[in-house]
Each structure stands twice: as structure tokens, then as C-alpha cells.
Amino acid sequence: MLVRIITGLIAIGLFVPVCIFSYTVAFPIVIGLLCLIGVYEMAKCLGFDKKYLITVPMYIIAVGLPIFRYYISYIFNGGPNSSFLACTAILLFGMLIYILAYVMLKKNTVKLSEILTFYAMFVYIVGCFSSMVLIRYSGNGKYMYLLAFLGAWVCDTFAYFVGKFFGKHKLIPEISPKKTIEGSIGGIVFTVGAFALYALIVNSIFADANLSYLKLCIFGFVLSIVSQVGDLIASSVKRQNDLKDYGNLFPGHGGVLDRFDSVMLTAPTLYVLNVILNFF
Prior knowledge:
Number of strands: 2
Largest sheet: 2 strands, antiparallel
Strand order of the largest sheet: 1-2
Radius of gyration: 19 Å
Low-confidence stretches: none
Strand content: under 5%
Order of helices and strands: HHHHHHHEEHHHH
Number of domains: 2
Structural class: mainly alpha
Helix content: over 70%
């Protein structure tokens, strides 16, 4: 526990300056590096880390896409998010064709089902991490992007403590033996409260923020559920491949996919929610 706490404090100390300078290229560079490490961890988990003809293009895409989003407004005129999404779709489709060609040239010595599983997880990781940058450089993104992290980490923290002291009924013991229904509900309740508090603090400090309490409470409710789903997805993949942790980058916490498993799924969900609620 002491190691987890120390690692957490160091991570917070590094995370704060990244947030302060999130308007610069520093933020997408950090996200790109995390995405790169995440793809490497998944490649190692699924046994593809030594297949460099497959992994190297994926690593380039993983680190490049978040940084590309930062510069895309200088490349395309207008609608940088739509331009980014279109370019991403083309790039990922091209990667799929490349993988299928690779399997063909290997004359079926590589199982199509296994490599497509790896590709699906690659798309999942890259899409989720890229969404963090996508949110940051959207309209009110300078206030919204932190919710992806806040939602996941608040839910995870309070689900743990509520489950520890009040948990009696297991959630999905086959995937995560320690998670409880009581902890899950506690995480949801505290996340909604944290989002309402976040809106109060931001609106009090920044005159141009004008965050909607109702929208943020909806965000908190949805993201708290999604973050737990993201956690369970990562745990399921680990269990199917007999892994305790994806890596050891964060002592006491594991690798990038262990530490950011919840955050990854909250980011694209937050982006979609923000688009829908602003539209309506």
C-alpha cells in the first residue's frame, strides 16, 4: 500500500504541470507516449511484441495520432475535429488492410483470429487515448478534459473504500474478485457528487466557464459506470492471458493499461456525451 501511495503522489506531481501546460504540445506528447506504451503492453500480453512488421507501424500511429490532433488545425482549414476523425478512420482502415495482407503473405502461419484480436485492442487503445486530446482541443475542452480523469479516478477510489468497508455482494467475481455491488454504487454516487463540486469550483473561479450542473451530473453518472466497464474489460483480457499486471511502469499500480484502464473508456464517452448534449 505504501508503494502505491508514493507512486500515486509522484504521478500527481507529474500530472499537474502537464495539465497546466495542456494548451501546448506537451499534453499530446505525453498522451502519445502513454498510448505507445499501452499498445506495447497489449502486444506483449497477446504475444505480438516480437512481430515488428506489425507492431512498428502500430507504435508510430499510437504516438503520432494525439500529436497530429494538436497540429491538424494548421494543416486543414476549419473543422479540425472532423478532419482528425476522417484521417484517423482512413489510417486505421489502412492498418487493417496491411494486417490482412501480412497474414496472406505469411501463408496462414499467423492465425487471423489472434491478429484481429490484437488489432481490435489496438484500435481501442489508440481511439481512447486520442479522445483525451480530442476533448482538450474542442470548444470548452480546457474545462471538460479533466472530467475523463476525475470520473475514472474518483469512481475507482470510492468504489474501493465503499467496497472495503460495506461490500458484501460480489459484482463479477470471475473477472474481478474484489469488486462489489456496494462499491460500484458508492463509486457512482461519489462521482456524481465530485462532478457537481467540480462545476461549482470551476464556475466560481473562471468567469467564462459556465458549466451546467445538470449536464455534469449526467456526465458523472454515465462516466462512473463506463469507467467500471473499462476496468473490467482490462481485467478480463489480463485473466484470459494469465497476467497479473500489464507492466511495471507504475510500481504498485502496474503498467499504463493497469493505471489508465478506467480513464481510457471515459474519454471517448465524454466526447460523445459532450457533442450530443451541446447539440440538443
